[in-house]
Design goal:
This protein is α+β, with helices and mostly antiparallel strands and about 325 residues long. The chain is about 40% helix and about 20% strand. It contains ten helices and ten strands. The strands form four sheets. The chain has a three-stranded antiparallel β-sheet with strand order 3-6-5. A hairpin with a 4-residue loop joins strand 9 and strand 10. Helix 7 packs across helix 9. The C terminus is likely disordered.
Length: about 325
Amino acid sequence: MSKELRENLSKEIVNQLSLGFKPWEPDWSVSSARAVSVMSPLNPTTGKRYRGGNRVVLGMVALARGYTDSRWMTFNQAKKLEVSVKKGEKGTTIEYWSFTKSVKTDETDPATGKPVYVNKKLDRPCPFYATVFNAQQMTSMPEVIVPDLKIHSNDAIEAMVAASGAVLEFGMRDVPCYIPSQDLISMPAKESFHDTEGYYATLLHEMAHWTKASGRMDRDMKTYAAEELVAELTSVYLCSDFGVSYKLDKHVSYIGDWMEAIDNDKNVFFRAAAEAEKSSDYLMQFTNNPDYVPMNEIDLSDFTFDFDSISSLMDEEETFSISPK
């Protein structure tokens, strides 16, 4: 994501936080299944989920615009599905990073007569951009039938926590917390929560803090606010992955700290989003979900774009505005 876009998005996030509104939190007045799914955007032409900063950006755009479809793709990918972008619709920019480049060698492929190319590791990774559109911005897009969401994944969360080996105590403190000196997660009694969803969302938040410890992820976000953003977004991601409808009012106390952190560093939100994906991946390894693909195992070659087409679309790119629901 370009520097200008990151700065504009950061300003929008700070503005909405100043109103007490978290732009990544779904509106539960819509179907719970759809509200959860938009925070797990995917590309139907590759079968891959968008990850890191792209995941949270596309989720926030969907929530701001009222999209209930989690599918996003480029203009040309839509054409391959024989659907078209509606006239006047503008896309949302996403970002990928290339760690290698294709270099022409002196060799020739005897079968084709064409030069042979090899991948060379770059000294510094290079970003590239694509403009994607939501399925609801398209005509003739087959509808996805989303079943009614039922909180049936609690056992899966409990199994993940147990398999992780994390040490938990219950009912000893009124406020949930992770205590680094004891490597301990302290949770209030389960019955003290307003609902089951809130309990599990909070538990996942504290599990995210647990992942930062030495010997696990060795994460150091430098500031308390940045680490809280990682835990917040990890909980959002995992609630979406487990199908848990969540609303964490207790996190309102962090909003002032988030505003200051994002205002001071335009990249902190995106670093937190990427670290939240890594935290989610770390915890999801303790599940037996065969469909979960860790962030560091995604092959960027799966995202095949027509870059000439993308360049022309970037001229029409929209810097989206988040507005409260």
